[in-house]
Design a protein that fits this description.
Its main location: cytoplasm. Keywords: Cytoplasm, Glycosyltransferase, Magnesium, Metal-binding, Nucleotide-binding, Purine salvage, Transferase. It is an enzyme of class 2 (transferase). It is found in: Cytoplasm. The strands form 2 sheets. The chain has a 6-stranded mixed β-sheet with strand order 4-3-2-5-6-7, with helices on both faces. The two termini are 24 Å apart. The chain has 4 helices and 9 strands. Helix 1 (17-34) packs across helix 2. The mean pLDDT is 91. Helix content is 23%, strand content 30%. The structure holds 1-O-pyrophosphono-5-O-phosphono-alpha-D-ribofuranose and hypoxanthine (HPA).
Length: 183
């Protein structure tokens, strides 16, 4: 989606598509260096992670496979419900595999702490987390995140996979949603 078409719905652009692409390339290089010689199973968390998964996986030089989980804790609002539901599970048996969870955003951390507990019980060889965006001030759970694209302020953001009630995921930049859209 052309960002100009919905610029009235954003109060502020935080990152342009070029800035996001540049940072994803840096993170991919770090991952390649850390996993040298290992195959990685990238686990994307639907729906929001589709953009970062597509970009990160193509920026990696490492051998990797992909699988997906769908988990929901936000419903249609801007606050985490705190209730995490698995809507779609992995198709891969991750026992003995190097798993890298790919997230679009870590906000309260509730989704991820649930996910880590769930995946660790399946005995992967290793489990690490990559997220495109993280809100340090919103954290309700401390989760160990190996790779972070950008730390951002504690405001509701949309674009690059992040939605408000299903909208704005295909915005190429990331920005804060103007209050008039959701109030
Ligand atoms: O750290 P938290 O406060 O738990 O929030 C992070 C989660 O919220 C979003 O998912 P959402 O439930 O909105 O589903 P979606 O990816 O389909 O938009 C996002 O993709 C993360 O999975
Ligand atoms: O700021 C956000 N925007 C969109 N989806 C989200 N899920 C958690 N936090 C956010």
């Amino acid at each position: 989606m052309d960002d100009a078409q919905i610029s009235g719905d954003l109060s502020r652009v935080l990152f342009t598509s070029d800035q996001i692409a540049g940072r994803i390339a840096e993170v991919a290089a770090q991952i390649d260096s850390d996993y040298e010689g290992e195959e990685i199973l990238l686990v994307g968390v639907l729906n929001g992670a589709v953009m970062v998964m597509a970009d990160l996986s193509r920026a990696l030089k490492s051998h990797c496979r992909m699988d997906w989980m769908a988990i929901s804790s936000y419903g249609s609002g801007t606050q985490s419900s705190g209730v995490v539901r698995i809507l779609k599970d992995l198709t891969t048996d991750i026992s003995g595999l190097h798993v890298l969870v790919v997230e679009d955003i870590i906000d309260t951390g509730l989704t991820l702490s649930y996910l880590i507990g769930n995946l660790m019980s399946r005995n992967p060889a290793s489990l690490k987390i990559m997220t495109a965006f993280r809100k340090p001030e919103a954290a309700k759970n401390t989760v160990d995140v190996a790779y972070v694209g950008f730390d951002i302020p504690n405001e509701f953001v949309v674009g690059y996979g992040l939605d408000y009630d299903g909208h704005y995921r295909n915005l190429t930049s990331v920005g804060t949603l103007a209050p008039h859209v959701y109030s």
